[in-house]
Amino acid sequence: MTTITFTQPYEHAFVRDYPNEAAGWVDGAYKRRIPELLPVPAEAYGANGLAFTTRRLVEESDALNDDPNTIARTSYFIGTTIAAPAPSKGYHITAEVLGTDDNTDETGRTFRAIINGQDVAQFTLLPDQRREIAFDVQLTRRDIELTFVPVEGRDDATTGWGELTLAQLSYEPIVRNRADRPHIFIAADSTVQTYFAEEAPQAGWGEWLAWFLMNDHRFAYEHDVASTVPQARVFTGDGPTIHNRALGGRGLRSYLDEHRFHKLLGSLAPNDVVLIQFGINDESKTRPMRYIPLDEYAAWLDRYVTSVADRGARPVLVTAIPQYPQGAGIDVGKALDPYADVTRTYAAEHDVPLIDLRRLAGEYLAALPEENVDAVFLRVSALQYLRHLDGIKDIVHIGPAGAKAYARIVARELGALYPEFAFHDEEQGSPEPVENLTADGVTGIIGAEVNLRWTASPHANYYVVEKSNAEGRVYNREVIVKPEFHDLPLPGQSRHVIYTVTAWRDAVAAEPRRIAVTIPASDDICADLG
């Protein structure tokens, strides 16, 4: 245990101030207030300890172009602060404080202990009361930066000045050991998270990782009770326990600011592995609660890597997945590429294990026929899924075929890094032609429609459906991932059509199967006179 008393000047104490207004929106990015650090006055130290004079200032930015998603809410902690150097670990902290606030009545005044900018404990202090407070904290930096701010009204409201005295601070590491094999944790974004069945066909590679790391691809999963997020899942089986804590819309900043990284760190034990994939949302310049300028990105990576490594666990950086390689996806990819480059450079310079998923997945996409890459992404036509009745053409997110392919890459690379995690590949045979192809005419919401169904082809991971007329003119071509297709014929097309269904395994196609269909016409006025 480390104990510090504050009756004498402490070299790591200072007064933080934010004397100038925030610069606000500059070149499309929000600039917060810049702190000034001043020395603690000598008279702040006394026989009882170090006198703290502090307040919380909360500001919200203006909305950019009237978009409420661009509002940044920032808490600034002003006044006396100490920063005790310590490895980035979990600690049990005990502080001895004395009530000295002149504004405190007989009911006392409520304060919050703030560690590294995070509210960690709330307590009430009476005038002249000496009290010991104790709480646990998960550091994400190599210091215990401690201040206290009064609570007034809402927890995150701007407050007036508050005063108390810190007599002594003690802290000792929280020791966490694990009896079973190391666990794998995932801190990442929407391209990795687990999705519910009703969200199909959107998927994340994190929900498929267990398939390639569990013997015989057999595993069970349930909600990860250590997380309050419904999407968090823990996968168990004959292999490593996998905690998928990925969550959509998060980057390095927001995943930490929302305490999600702290919760993950609190679950870690030595030798665990943490897969860290961000970079897509970090580039969102107009979302200040998650945006990280490119020149600050390496420092944020270092904060995550250090926090994992100091706990005796093993950080593995993963570059963000590539974007749709056509159309607008190219521009998005170019905007995100520099964040992957920073990740690669940081990993090389600091000898941090790296899975360059952006490069490896890009190679996988390049090996596919260009017209088939839709199978990887969240791109479906209308009426195929209840969640996307109008269809969706997403250039960032992925479907089950892409999630499974990327999980295979991550599992393979992870097994190469750490042989204790055996990579269980699946048979890579060529796909068989589809069987039992049927086509049923139905009356839909606007007229005649067709339901195609077939038996799923072994070894296939997607299908291509082409519709043509009897003369061979192709009306449309769909890339799909499930063994069924709902077609909505368009006006002007022949009612006598041929559907061709081809099973694909990545870049290898099976022999196609065809079925001829005469689409019913519910509004046909031609009388059959016999």
Automatic annotation (TrEMBL):
Domain SGNH hydrolase-type esterase span(s) in chain numbering: 238-370
This protein's UniProt keywords: Hydrolase
Domain of life, source organism: Bacteria
Gene3D superfamilies given in the database record: SGNH hydrolase (3.40.50.1110)
Single GO molecular function: hydrolase activity
Similarity remark: Belongs to the 'GDSL' lipolytic enzyme family.
Protein name: Rhamnogalacturonan acetylesterase
Organism: Bifidobacterium callimiconis
